[in-house]
Amino acid sequence: MSKDDKQYGQQVLRLIKKLVETDGDVTGEESSWLSLVRKEFGQSEDNSEFDPAVLKAAVEDDDDAEELISLLLMVSLADGQTTPGEYELIIRVGGLVGVSAERVEQLRAETVLAVDPD
Fold first, then answer.
1. Comparing C-alpha atoms, which of 73, 79, 72 is closest to residue 110?
2. What CATH number should be reported for the domain holding residue 98?
3. pTM confidence score
4. pLDDT bracket for residue 4 (50, 70, 90)
5. Residue 3 pLDDT more than 50?
6. CA separation for the pair 54, 56 (Å, rounded)
7. Residues 40-54, buried b or exposed e (16+ Cβ, 10 A)?
8. CA–CA separation, 104 and 63 (whole Å)
9. 99/69 Cα distance (integer angstroms)
10. Fewer CB atoms near the end CB (10 Å): N or C, the chain?
């Protein structure tokens, strides 16, 4: 997925942590996502700050970028809704990795349907 999977994993974990803390309330579902991502990338607890430049350098192509945005959208829905602050962060990350706001919105609609098809 990236030139340096460890660095990528660290940044994704830091970004997800920032995302789930955006609304001020980390739910059990959001904590489960953090644990899952930590395990997926073999990362330990890390209190370092998210570094956008490192993430941008680690995302190699459009597929990686959209996969990251989809992951962020799923995590943001873990507590039942994506808050405006969470969505704003996802839009900013999309811009950072080359995913337009329009495409983020398309991915959001697809993610909402996948999570709650009714």
1. 73
2. 1.10.3680
3. 0.86
4. low
5. no
6. 5
7. ebebeeeeeebeeee
8. 13
9. 8
10. C
- N- to C-terminal Cα separation, the chain: 33
Only one residue has tokens 């983020």, namely 104
Contacts of 76 (CB under 8 A, 6+ apart): 19, 82, 83, 86, 87, 90
Interatomic CA distance for residues 118 and 52, integer angstroms? 35
| Residue span of the structural domain in which 59 resides | 5-115
* CA quadruple 10, 59, 51, 87: dihedral, nearest 10: -100
What's the Rg (C-alpha) of the chain?
A: 13
Give the Cα separation of 44 and 23 in Å (integer).
23
In contact, 92 and 21? CB cutoff 8 Å: no
- Per the structure, the count of domains in the chain is 1
